[in-house]
Amino acid sequence: MVYGMLFQTEAGTNVPMKRSGFGFVVSFLALTGYAWAPEAQVQTVRLGPYHTPKRSELTVSKDGLNVAYVIRTPGGSAFRVRTDGLIPIDGKESVIVSGQAGPKYDEIRDNPVFSPDGKRVAYVAREGTKSLVVVNGKAGPEYDGVTRPVFSPDGKRVAYGVKNGTKSFVVVDGKAGPEYDVLRPDVMFSPDSKRVAYAARKGKKDFVVVDGAVGPEYDGTITNRGPVFSPDSKRVAYAAKKGEKWFVIVDGKASPEYDGIIFMPVFSRDGKRVAYSVKEGMKRLVVVDGKASPEYDGVFQDDPSASGFTPAFSPDGKRVAYAAQDGEKSFVVVDGKAGPKYDGSFSSPLFFFSPDSKRVAYGVKEGEKKWFLVVDGKASPEYDEILVSPFSPDSKRVAYAAKKGEKWFVIVDGKAGPEYDGVITDRENRRWAVFSPDGKRVAYAAEKGEKYLVVVDGQVGPEYEGISIPIFSPDSKRVAYAAREGKKDFVVVDGQVGPEYEAVIKNGPTFHSDGRLEYLAFRGSSLYRVNHIPALPTLHKRPVAPRGSPKRSGQP
């Protein structure tokens, strides 16, 4: 299915939106004697050409408002590097960013990378035997080899590793650092974007470089995630090895020695606390603020990039949770207290703290086909499968999807909704149900036969051949999603159907604080930026005929 969709008009034109099946608002106003006169307009701007086929995958900024891809232009001489030398090829490659072509090179390596704010793009290019990093169309120096660039969280800085001859170094903001024999993967920026850390090797010794200062030497470092900064950017932690023993270094101070480090350190959101998991013999322990837990046969791990990574701190940093195993039994430990023991495993993400840190939820698999949700220590009924969702922003509400037999349904605040053939999920961002920012509303997308629909506050929308997960506006009053019918994509906003396109680019649409809804879409050979401009509705009071007088045509 398509997660982003579009339609075309000429640049700068306004197009009125069409009504969809969401007519309950109009019906309500009609009953109260008012007529709804929506004045929302759709503005489109042609950004440039949209090329098919493309030489690379489509790279889309997180907000869905910029897109980049690689094309090859026939004609001219270029070379591709092979182990047996340079092989002549036809044409040059360039990166197209939101319809605008960048410089041409012999080869564009990997896919482009957008900054977190989506405003900048960087990529690795090759000319002959030399490689370089290009940021927003500006080429950097040429080297024998470069790693994929990394943006700082604020998008203003960029760093990458360089291999030149037998030496390696890191380039930050265009400035080359000291040379080393080997660079470990991942240059890390701190959350405030001011600090930089990475691991390197000289001779047979490894060390971590933080803000240009070289740390102590070790026999090895764990660098699958690189050094870890605390959320407040003031602290840094990493794992290192001396001889056959491993330990964790936090703010330059080493922990006791262990046989192995299972998970990299995790800081609490306020940066004051740190936790990690270690190996001692055949046992596993969780260390929180330097204090080791009891020994377990295993400690569960979730995706490190997900909110359910274990061990995990609550948003206020005062609580910590992890999942462990003893023998054939699995259980969750919250604040040092082990919960009920189960025969199976846990859902992914492993668990969620509520935004106010007072509540905990996790999914449990018991046996072969028994799944249930545990919220605040209380188990839900059993199902064949479940999808766990985070708490509402106000921490008061819980929603999850469950399957019984061949049917799925959504349970909100303990009440089950209608049955469907499936519930649409966004696996990349690990979400399916969406609470509004104020926590009062909930929306999700479902599958019904060969059709798809969106359910908002229990109201079922029109059926389409494809659909995206809905989004709420910042004020919680508006809802939007992308849909497909036939060979056309379009965006539905507050029940109104927008213009049709061949496709709406994924990650869109996006609401802005001023009420605008924005996304990218293409039709034919053109890429468009589309804005749905809100307008205050005009309510017209219908005239009321005097009692006893005859009704006119069309009069209620």
What would you note in describing this structure?
The strands form 13 sheets. Strands 1, 4, 55, 56, 57 and 58 form a six-stranded antiparallel β-sheet that branches. Strands 2, 50, 51, 52, 53 and 54 form a six-stranded antiparallel β-sheet that branches. The protein has 556 residues and is mainly beta. It is 1% helix and 50% strand. It is flat.
Describe how the helices and strands are arranged.
Layout: E1 13-16, E2 18-19, H1 24-31, E3 34-37, E4 41-49, E5 59-60, E6 67-82, E7 85-97, E8 100-101, E9 107-114, E10 121-127, E11 130-135, E12 138-139, E13 145-146, E14 150-151, E15 158-164, E16 167-172, E17 175-176, E18 182-183, E19 188-189, E20 196-202, E21 205-210, E22 213-214, E23 220-222, E24 228-229, E25 236-242, E26 245-250, E27 253-254, E28 260-267, E29 274-280, E30 283-288, E31 291-292, E32 298-299, E33 312-313, E34 320-326, E35 329-334, E36 337-338, E37 346-353, E38 360-366, E39 370-375, E40 378-379, E41 385-388, E42 399-404, E43 407-412, E44 415-416, E45 422-423, E46 434-435, E47 442-448, E48 451-456, E49 459-460, E50 466-467, E51 471-472, E52 479-485, E53 488-493, E54 496-497, E55 503-504, E56 510-511, E57 517-523, E58 526-533, E59 538-541
Antiparallel strand pairs: 1-4, 2-54, 3-59, 4-58, 5-6, 6-7, 7-8, 9-10, 10-11, 11-12, 13-15, 14-15, 15-16, 16-17, 18-20, 19-20, 20-21, 21-22, 23-25, 24-25, 25-26, 26-27, 28-29, 29-30, 30-31, 32-34, 33-34, 34-35, 35-36, 37-38, 38-39, 39-40, 41-42, 42-43, 43-44, 45-47, 46-47, 47-48, 48-49, 50-52, ...
